[in-house]
Amino acid sequence: MGMSGNTIAGVLETVRRQALPADDREYCVALHDYVRDQVRFGFTTGFESVTPEQTLILGRGHCNAQADLLCALLRGAGFETSLRFVALDKRILRHAVPVPVLFCLPARLFHAVTQVRLGGQRCSIDSYIFDRSGFRQQQARLRAAGLERGFGLGQGAVCDWSGCGDAFSQAEPSDL
C-alpha cells in the first residue's frame, strides 16, 4: 500500500479511492472492512499503549488496538464515534489461548467496542477483529466443539457489517 497506508489520512484517502463509497454508510463499512482485512488480530509489545498509527505500521493489533484504529479512521472521516468498554466472559478465549493462561485470567475481560453514529442511529461494532478466513476457521472450530462461545468468538459472532445496526464478533448485545 505504500507509506500513505501508515497514516490515518493515507488510509482514508486509499479507502475512499478504492471503495468509491456512494454514501456515509458505504464509507463506514469500507473503513470497517479495511481494519478487518488489513490489521491481523494479535498482541503487540505496546499492548494498551499502542497508537492507531502504530497499529497501522505493525498491521496487527488486539481487539482494543483495532477498535482504537477504527475509531480514529471514522473520526478522521468526520463521523461521530467513540469507544465503549465492556467486560467479556473469559470463556470467549477457550481454545484460543493455552489453558494455563485462561486459568490465570479474570472471569471478565476488558474489551473495546467501536460506536459510530450513522443515519441518526448509534451502531456498536467489533466485527472487524478477524479477517473472513480466520473468522470462518474459528467459527468452524466453535461449531465442531459444540460451544456457545470460545476460539475468540462470542455467541452469534459475525465478521461482516452492513452499516445498519450492531455487529459483534466478540462482544454480545447483553455486554453493552
TrEMBL record:
UniProt domain Transglutaminase-like: residue ranges: 21-118
Pfam families: Transglut_core
InterPro entries listed in its UniProt record: Papain-like_cys_pep_sf, Transglutaminase-like
Protein name in UniProt: Transglutaminase-like domain-containing protein
Lineage: Bacteria, Pseudomonadati, Pseudomonadota, Betaproteobacteria, Neisseriales
